[in-house]
Predict the structure.
Amino acid sequence: MDFVSENLLTLLILLPVFGAVGLIAHQMFWKQEEHLKWVTLAITVVIFLLSLLLLGEGGTKAGGFSFVKNVPWIEAINTNYHVGVDGLSLWLVILTTFIMPIAIISTWHAVEKRPLAFYAFLLLLQSAMIGVFVSLDLLVFYLFFEASLVPMFFLIGIWGGANRIYAAVKFFIFTAVGSLLMLVAIIALYFMHQQATGVGTFDFVTLLGSIESGTLAFSASTGLLLFIAFALAFSIKVPLFPFHTWLPDAHTEAPTAGSVILAAVLLKMGTYGLMRFNFPLFPDAARELAPIFIILAIIGIIYGALVAMVQPDVKRLVAYSSVAHMGFVILGMFSFTEWGMQGALYQMLNHGISTGALFLLVGFIYERRHTREISEFGGIANVMPLYATFFVITAMSSVGLPFLNGFVGEFMIMIGMWKSSILAVTATANWNYIATMAAGTGVIFAAVYLLWMIQRVFFGKVTNEKNLGLTDLTPREIGLMIPLLFLMVFMGVYPRPFLDRSRDAVVAIQERVVKQAGGTVEVVETFEKE
């Protein structure tokens, strides 16, 4: 057990890779494609169970990392394999390992073309995503960040819809180009540290320590440029308005498993990167540019909701809802309050669960009718009552109905923005209040577009004879939805276990940003651990 504890994060990264290699070997010797999905499912279940061991220590050290592994890798440039987990990354790693078995089962009967490559790409994608959330060396982080592009590119490009090539190329170009500037900034930090101390490093903890001690210092303009270089890569990944245009196409054309993973995990790599690297390394730039990010977040919330209202395709509607939901996450992060930042992290998890579930449900109906056009449906609650029930509950979670998970995150974000001091207070207006109320309209719009879609798809008489023969959810599909629905309710009525784990890491980042500017950090007693 000591070996597992000491190398737990490495095992979580490498097991999917070994699994992909094992699939190839299995196919070479046994040539039984039916076994591939079972082997892949078994691998991902084992990885999920292993990830639960992180709960034993992860997120319990005030501002520190657990399960740390730091060994030399490329000594010529002082690059280490340095991984660790804290309250910020803990739940995102577990979300990644939790969602993968669900994604695999969701395509149980849908993958007929090149199943070996499909499941191998899923495993490689899982490895890269976990690597992103646990890497504490900037170069290693960048490599995992870029590596995640390749499997998703092929998942969309090979197993996607009619416009899959366009969507895959657009996804790849957007994210790859943005990441190049981040690489330049990482290299710049290396040489700046070398100039200041005589030793170059990509190590995040070392760089942060040098900046906090004043050993590594740079001008305000340099800090802004470095912040922007990192933030551009992460903003595209979120995606933050106006960098969102790749997302609806990618979601619409991706296979169900790809859409679920994209919504649940890949988008969170952007918001995670902002909180993990941008805020601690460049706190002055973060505060200076916060009003711009808040404005873009509010535009994204309202724009995403308004565009979702007019979508004829259910999957595209859910895709645009992601633009709005991730706008709320950005809003909470840049409030620089504990309420807002904790709410943002919680909303990352909520979005992954609720929107991932919506994409699953859209996939279920697509397998039956091979269409996602809203006009093709109507009254299907009469023939699929269980499906309709699950869909309505999930949609209410996405809207933010009290006692469901979405309410907690949005409520905390709104309070955090209301209490924030990041925006100016003038003689005529308190802009924090105005920003909060503007974002609040997004909640109303979300209720409008989701309830209107539900009314048209599920209620009334069956308007299309093709829908009369639809069958309700199978045991496999029910089994996929039950854990997601359980989390929607549990996280809505009892968020404390999640918030307690993340609090120390979030407050450490908040203190870094606020105190650097001479401010004070308010202690929120609601989140004090028992």
In short: The chain is about 70% helix and 5% strand. The radius of gyration is 23 Å. Confidence is low (pLDDT under 50) at residues 523-527. Strands lie at 66-74, 79-85.
